[in-house]
Amino acid sequence: MDTEKKQKVKENHTKPLRLFKIEQAIQNLCYPSVEKLQKELEVSRRTILRDIDELKIYYNAPIEYDRMRKGYYYSDNTYFVKNMLLTESEVFAVTGILPLMERYNNTPLKNTITKVYETLSQMLPNQVEVQSSFMNDVEFIADPIPVISEEVFNSVFKATKLHKIMQFDYRSISATDYKLHELHPYKIYNQKGDWYILGYSPKHEKFATFTLARMKNIVLGDDFKPDPDYTKKVHIDPNFGIWNNDTPPKKIELLFDKSINTYILERTWHKNQECRQNEDGSVYLCFESNQMQETLFWALRFGASVTVLNPPELKEMYAAEVRKMAEKL
Prior knowledge:
Blueprint: H1 3-27, H2 34-41, H3 45-58, E1 63-66, E2 71-74, H4 88-97, H5 109-123, H6 132-136, H7 150-162, E3 164-170, E4 179-191, E5 194-201, E6 206-211, E7 215-223, E8 250-256, H8 261-265, E9 274-277, E10 283-289, H9 292-300, E11 306-310, H10 312-327
């Protein structure tokens, strides 16, 4: 990077703070002069004058010069720069990232995120206009996610934070009705848009995971003392599943057809994976996990394009599931 580019990058990073300091100096009614601002901010006279012009032009700041006091002031003493001093690229980033928050539409966080967006919009300069064509050209497609009631969401977070025993009605994935459960909540997870609570279940005498979307009628009870060694008793794999499973992790080996080799190679499926392309174009993928059921569901999505090599129990689970599907044809 040449000297001119370095100076430009530095200016983009330092100017917002410099504008803020100039605005604060004027707001504090100390009638700062160009010389005083030069000394405090360690920049040239030309830079200070340019910054003041920018505040006046782009932020509608009613800045005037008092010849008697030889300094600047606001002609409207009720004015303040409420606009957030963001660069163009930062504004672009905000408008691009916020739509990704749609994954929280099934939680009370949606209202909070909406308020953040509205606040940012109000703080941006009036002269900053985000081209609507940008958002028209981009569409965010979210996975279908279940709705979580505000009561459940807030109660779970409160119980986890305050170490309160929870009682609630829960409907498991294959059940037709709800059953009463008790839980000592320890940690909340968000995995791929779904919300879970991990805690100790006195009924099962072990740590278990529950989906917030399947909970209702939560009642908070007495305090409980958290187990300081609970992490040693929790066996999950956040990459594939967060269901507590005492079974030791096993090496999972899969072979993918060359028809989807690029798709497999370009992604990180597991943080500890080994992924390589063979001479015939097929792709070998292996990783360790104790989440056999979740791995099975994931592998099935590839249909005939994947071959389960190991472990033997996963091979049998895959074959049994395929047979069940064939019987329904």
